Amino acid sequence: MENNSAEMRKKAGVKKVLIILLAVFLLLAAAFFAYCLPYYHADPDARQGSGNAAYVEKGTADGSGGEVKISDADDWIFYDGPGKSQAMVFYPGAKVDENAYGPLMYRLAEDGTDCFLVRMPLHLAIFGKSRAGEIIEEYKYEKWIMAGHSLGGSMAASFAASDQEQISGIVFLASYPAADLSKSPMRALSIYGSCDGVLNRENYADAGKKMPRDFTEHVIEGGNHAGFAYYGPQRGDSKASISKEEQIIETADIIEDWLED
């Protein structure tokens, strides 16, 4: 009888431990999905053309207009402009609808740099940082540029560090490298707004030692963290003194000038 009682107590103890472990797992899973599932949605105007293959024409002051074909793949949106030699792979910021970056991608493609706007699992680039590899393997360009906003920029840098032979440059929007690129031959461009309330300036300064030697920095006066895309205000951000349209136009102009250097 004593042996049976000891065995029963042992089984009850094991069962109790398993129940506790299951409860902890379920709590962690619930917390994970509670964090990941909500995300910043793109403003309706930013979604133009991204839902299906379409030609969108944008007029300019002199009456001319660049033609950009926007096509939708499973894991990215392709902005195919008049350029043929170089392309940019863009990683969105954490928990941001990729469509919010459509206006910036369109302006860059129109000016001659085709753009691939990448969709990320759960809207977090940390879970899809290697997706640029699929794009580079499928499409053929002479020059590839990695780019990203916030967490997307850090993950773009991690990919660039693993494929330095094919990546010639990287653009950080309110971001900094997670990987060490200090010995890389690639060029780097960093852009952030003077009113950015999300970017950790101390971490940004510390990450300077990880930047490539060929590094250029631009501060957009009056810009903030969320101003690089159309997804509304972001928690913790400061109010911008310029419009999103102004910030995106200036960002595109800075990138275009940097690419032409």
Notes on the protein architecture:
This protein has 261 residues and is an alpha/beta fold. 33% of the residues lie in helices and 22% in strands. It has 6 helices and 9 strands, in the order αββββαβαβαββαβα. The protein has helices at 2-36, 102-110, 131-138, 151-162, 201-206, 244-260, and strands at 54-59, 65-72, 76-80, 86-91, 114-118, 143-149, 167-173, 187-193, 215-220. The protein has a 9-stranded mixed sheet with strand order 1-2-3-5-4-6-7-8-9, with helices on both faces. α2 packs parallel to α6. The longest helix is centred in the first third of the chain and has 35 residues, at 2-36. The protein is globular and about 80 Å long. The model is unreliable at 49-65 (pLDDT under 50).
Outline the biggest β-sheet: 9 strands, mixed
Determine the mean pLDDT: 85
Shape: globular
How many beta strands in the DSSP annotation? Answer: 9
Structural class: alpha/beta
Q: N-to-C terminal Cα separation, in Å?
A: 87 Å
The topology string of helices and strands comes to HEEEEHEHEHEEHEH
Proportion of helical residues: 25-40%
**Contiguous uncertain segments of 5+ residues:** 49-65
Q: What is the count of DSSP helices, taking H or I runs of 4+ residues?
A: 6
> For this entry, what is the oligomeric state of its chains?
single chain
Share of β-strand residues: 15-25%
Rounded radius of gyration (Å): 22 Å
- The neighbouring-strand order within the major sheet is 1-2-3-5-4-6-7-8-9
